[in-house]
Design goal:
single chain, mainly alpha, DNA Binding (I), subunit A, two-stranded antiparallel sheet, 6 helices, elongated, binds zinc ion
């Protein structure tokens, strides 16, 4: 990545860890170490957390991206239901099967439509409910249902 492409936030993050470059993983780890330092106050800690979130999202997008069209297609294919509890919902949320903070990608293969309640309830589970739904419905894998 060249210097021009960097956002101001990232430059700030680099100055905190004292160097630039390295992949997101390396920088996230460095920032996590800095965050624990004694001299870091509440304000800096909040800043670091925001940098870390930004880097995780960048990593997720590097591993794979999805489009709104793919998301809408996925919701349409499952019939507008939450794939975890099977209830129809107008407000389905994009849930990352492998969470972004655990290295999950932002590809459609890692995303499933969940209702708000299921999304909050699911905790650390990493169950691919889209795959379960697809198998139960005997739907063959497609470009959207690759899992
Ligand atoms: Zn649900």
């Amino acid at each position: 990545m060249n210097e021009k492409e960097k956002t101001r936030k990232e430059k700030g993050a680099d100055s905190l860890i004292g160097w630039s470059g390295g992949d997101e993983e390396v920088r996230i780890e460095a920032l996590q170490r800095v965050r624990e330092a004694e001299w870091v106050g509440e304000k800096e800690r909040a800043k670091i957390n925001s940098y870390i979130r930004q880097l995780r999202l960048k990593r997720a997008n590097r591993l794979g991206k999805h489009t709104q069209v793919q998301w809408k297609k996925l919701v349409q294919l499952v019939g507008g239901i939450c794939v975890r509890c099977s209830e129809a919902s107008e407000k389905l949320e994009k849930d990352h099967i492998i969470p972004i903070y655990q290295g999950g990608s932002n590809s459609i293969r890692n995303i499933q439509p969940l209702c708000g309640r299921c999304n909050r309830q699911k905790g650390p589970e990493r169950i691919n409910w889209v795959r379960k739904w697809r198998q139960a419905q005997k739907v063959k894998p497609t470009s959207t249902f690759t899992t």
